[in-house]
Amino acid sequence: MYILYADESGAMGDPAQRHFVLAGVAVFDRQTWWLSKALDQMIARIFPQDPESVELHGNHILGGKGAWRCLDKPHRMSIVEEALSLIKPSMPLFGVAVERACLPGRDPVQYAFEQLCSRFDMYLGRHYRRKGDRQRGLIVFDKTSYETSLQGLAAGFRKVGHTWGKIRNLSEVPLFLDSRASRLVQLADLIAYAIFRHVEHGDSRFFSVIEKRFDAEGGVRHGLHFKCGRVGSGQIQ
Asked: How far apart are CA 174 and CA 92, in angstroms?
């Protein structure tokens, strides 16, 4: 089974933020323990006294909040880069960045969720058609206020379909975990935060680490979708 660990970035309740991002990393179930261990070891090296109490959270790390106050900003930024660099080529990334002004009258969260689900489902379908890989998928999110609506959306996709067809390769509706209990959900937070910094502030330092890790085939990048996002004068689609 492939598990897509996903999280969001961009507060829907903050009108000053122009973008909403939903993103994550798909990990084969036999790789989850190894990736979690690598993240644990990284945190234990930095906070040897109580590593389990320290959470990887992009906004907190960059802002020096909580346990991260004891480190200077260059060190904190290097930690985000190190965590993102642990993602292997066999672990495709998926991300959706929505500029809210481009969806008048529509819910950016639902739009991003539909895109994320369909792109992960298509990835699994390609593996089945071209490699005979019958592995199914599961999406694991951080607990959010969108839990009930997103589970309902996923169930609807499986029964009546989404804009591009039906969800055929996911074994269950999304599951929701407290991010404090999962290093991989925390890693998804860093991925979403890297994309958010890229589209919201034109800061691509973290995004450049993961830019080539998004699901792609035949020179076409399927795993990353920007809805009207802009960085400087360049249009991103």
From this structure: 18
